[in-house]
Design goal:
Elements (H helix, E strand, L loop, with lengths): L2 E5 L5 H8 L8 E5 L1 H10 L4 E5 H6 L5 E10 L6 E5 L10 E5 L4 H13 L5 E5 L12 E5 H6 L8 E4 H9 L3 E8 L6 H19 L2 H12 L3 H9 L1 E2 L4 H17 L18
Parallel strand pairs: 1-2, 6-7, 6-8
Antiparallel strand pairs: 3-10, 4-10, 4-11, 5-8, 5-9
Amino acid sequence: MLRLGHIVYSNCFPVHAGILTGKIPFPFKIVEGIPTELNRYLIEGKIDVSPSSSIEYAMNPGKYRILPGFSITSKTRAMSIILESKVPLAELDRKTVALTTASATSIVLLRIILEVFERVNPDFMQYEQGVEEPYDTADAVLTIGDLALRRAASPRFPHAYDLGELWYNKTGLPFVFAIWQVNYKRNMEQDLTRLYDALIESKQYGMSRLAELAEHHAGDFGLPAETLDRYWNNFSYDLGPEEQKGLLTYYGYAMELGVIDSVPDLKIWTPEAAR
């Protein structure tokens, strides 16, 4: 039985909504986790398919295949990838920036924004989001997911930056935070095709009912329905030419930082071959 990873944040819900609500038959197992947990489960073989951090694909070249047509991509703003800072970005050189351990892609994105775009070199520290509070020790704090959506503005950190928006303003491109990746084995072709078909139906179900789903599930995520609906509409869940261009541009900057050795080819699984 194949195992599908599910990001517990609300940004993943529209794609998996049909499956999670039982509207779309799904004879496979679902494993929930935060992005970095699902990255680990995928590489360890504890799950077979998952929406996983974009940087995970590039850091393990040749390990995964990409399911076509699926991503979590901010069109212009991300809304849930926020850097709160005591000072403007240009003044963060040698200042302490706290990075959440919940994300891999967003950490590299922030490094690109600070080190490449702004030409500053902060001192980074890590913290466990939702458990540790780094606001007394850090000059800036990166928060992701629903917690970032729920956080109220703090007068101690008067500068709040949306990383998706900073990326878009610099590049004019959307930012791909996650892609559906497969820890591929040849003997999974038939089941993978069935899982892919279910995901297609689930995504169609979710995307055609965003306002309805927001109203019904707002309490699950601790957000107002209006915020949740606006948030979901802020994303592209596709992986078309523009999303792929944004993804490859991100990989180019990650290579410039030395995070990855080279920009990988996007090895996209083709379901037609399995039918």
